[in-house]
Design a protein that fits this description.
With 401 residues, the chain is α+β, with helices and mostly antiparallel strands. The chain has 12 helices and 13 strands. It has one domain: Beta-lactamase (3-Layer(aba) Sandwich), CATH 3.40.710.
Amino acid sequence: MRNSRWAVVTVATIAAFVLSGCVATPVADGSSPPTAAAASLDADVRARLEDALDDGFAASGMPGVTVGLWVPGEAEWVATRGVSDLASNEPMDRANQSKVGSITKTLVGMVALQVIGDGEAGLSLDDTIDEWYPDFPLASEITVRMIMNMSSGIGSPGQAQIDRICADPYSTITPDEMIAIGASTPRADFAPGEGDNYSGFNTFLLGRILEQTTGTDLGTLIDEHLLEPLGMTRSRFAPDGLLAEPLNRGYSGFCPQLPQPTDTTDWSNHEAWAAGAMLSTIDDLHTWGVALGEGYGLTPELQAARIEDRAPGTMPEGYGYGLGVLVHFDPDSGCPLDLGHSGAEPGYGAHVQYFVGSGAVLTLVGNGDGGTGEEFAKVVRALLPVLPESVAATSSSDCVG
């Protein structure tokens, strides 16, 4: 069955999240960890998904991919294609850890909203960043809300970031050095709060502000607020970029001066930091997808704000950036249809998507970028049109948005 509402994930939507640097009335307080799914989906649905995965994987050119779909009441479908290691031809496995790039932004955003909600650090969405970075351009006009929803107008890292990574894949550049680069990068052509421009420099600022207001390093904040209580034992905030066995080796075409494809498995994630340094697995991403969709640990007010406080303007197909999460919404009603994010680092691609009406979660990890960072998107685009109708169930008319 064709789900036209999700049949198109545009290249613009997913490609925006290449490199870090792609609800109904809220649950009372979002405090319940997600529950496990049952055994398997209907055989006909599985057959359509398997065929679509074959087509998407063939188009992607990635060495390997693992995808998962969890539908409450209908259970799970997890499937792999290709290999995790080109040298050994070891097949992909759902246990393998991967770099998941800009999905990191959703975890940092959730931690920020939890910190704001508990009030102990005195942090507010309306604080301006000159309190911490007075010399940053227009700092007195840029709020925490703006750096979370990408409406600050801070410039994008762009090709300059790729060039730095290719020149020094093992860089130990610091967050404040990255923020200084962001300060010198030309701004987008709008005043703070009056447009949208996706930039990982925003999340670098958010991560450092969290560290300074709480007195705790960002990795510990992510562990204590999310990974430990959610039981995400195979996920790690990892600026060092070091994956734990079993793992997917990464293969990239980003750097034409290096052997093709380039094995990026042990490359540093310091250029990514708060914007993209997470490691995870397909099952941990499922756990995270449910927590993200339900607003884990958020007050009802902040659960609503993260969806309602979208940057002015929208991406194609009704997408807009909320507070630390990409929101796909119905342009007519304003109701959210799904929440999620895509991510890429050289040699890796990932995707997590929570469907609001059904509570279903779609996830993907892949170990190639095809030289553009968009190749994993071909798998997602192939799968969306054949998702079961139960996934595409719409939310109530009484919705946030």
